[in-house]
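Renewal narrative, Specific Aim 1. Our central claim is that a sequence can be written position by position from structural information alone. The example that follows is taken directly from our test logs and has not been curated for this report. It begins with the structure tokens describing the chain, in the order in which they were read.
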């Protein structure tokens, strides 16, 4: 079965970035010259996926508008002979077929994904969280799709984290399946110190089988009254099996202020036009401060 659809939840309030996100969706904060959400969508496109399903909420119209065609702006750019800019904006509006689903109540990530059930249908799909940027030669999502083509079961992306940080993540325990891949035995959401010896943390990339929807529907609200995706994933792993994939690349938590700054530096250094000058500037700053 091909992975044709990707769900990107963007309904969160972005409280970690207040006051910057008081009137602007956190997904529209820029990394160099484009909003965070565009990097996520471009990863989806580069992975061969055909449709994006945005899970939105009130105040997120700017995200949808970003990927829409703007006739007025296009006309102005054409009249001012700014064809290059016009072409870039048209490219964004034609990146991929985008559908929006409204999450009417903030009931957690599990509920956000469950809200897409009628659009996704009875087929496996990808989930990419808008806070997680992955810088890699091969798109992280594409790496996971390649593994799914082999195992035909749900997959979570993982990275190694320091033991004193495991309480900030969902942690998996499992047996090696092949290089960088583990068959999951157990998942623990934000474990207390000493609750697990594993340092393999789940990050915001998933390939999920459609059976997840019926499990999410039965999942009782957990901490904060939210429906936790990890609870449904654990049950799915018991019923069918599940794999964890240690992706190749560098992940940045763009929903965290320090992670956001690190992402700006990393993507800025790789920028085709600004990279070299930016590298020199960073060196000067390091020497002077």
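The sequence written for that structure reads:
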């Amino acid at each position: 079965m091909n992975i044709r659809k990707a769900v990107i939840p963007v309904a969160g309030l972005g409280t970690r970035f207040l006051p910057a996100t008081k009137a602007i969706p956190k997904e529209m904060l820029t990394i160099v010259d484009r909003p965070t959400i565009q990097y996520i969508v471009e990863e989806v496109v580069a992975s061969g996926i055909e449709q994006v399903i945005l899970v939105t909420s009130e105040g997120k119209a700017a995200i949808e508008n970003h990927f829409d065609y703007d006739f007025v702006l296009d006309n102005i750019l054409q009249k001012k002979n700014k064809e290059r800019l016009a072409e870039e904006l048209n490219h964004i509006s034609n990146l991929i077929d985008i559908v929006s689903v409204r999450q009417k109540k903030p009931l957690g990530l599990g509920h956000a994904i469950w809200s897409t059930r009628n659009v996704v249908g009875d087929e496996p799909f990808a989930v990419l969280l808008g806070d997680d940027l992955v810088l890699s030669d091969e798109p992280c999502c594409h790496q996971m799709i390649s593994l799914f083509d082999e195992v035909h079961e749900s997959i979570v992306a993982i990275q190694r984290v320091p033991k004193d940080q495991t309480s900030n993540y969902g942690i998996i325990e499992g047996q090696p399946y092949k290089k960088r891949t583990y068959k999951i035995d157990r998942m623990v959401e934000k474990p207390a110190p000493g609750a697990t010896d594993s340092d393999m943390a789940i990050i915001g990339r998933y390939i999920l089988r459609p059976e997840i929807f019926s499990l999410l529907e039965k999942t009782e609200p957990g901490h904060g009254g939210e429906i936790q995706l990890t609870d449904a994933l654990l049950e799915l792993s018991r019923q069918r099996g599940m794999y964890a994939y240690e992706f190749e690349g560098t992940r940045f938590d763009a929903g965290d202020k320090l992670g956001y700054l690190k992402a700006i530096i990393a993507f800025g250094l790789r920028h085709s036009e600004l990279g070299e000058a930016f590298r020199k500037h960073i060196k000067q700053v390091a020497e002077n401060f």
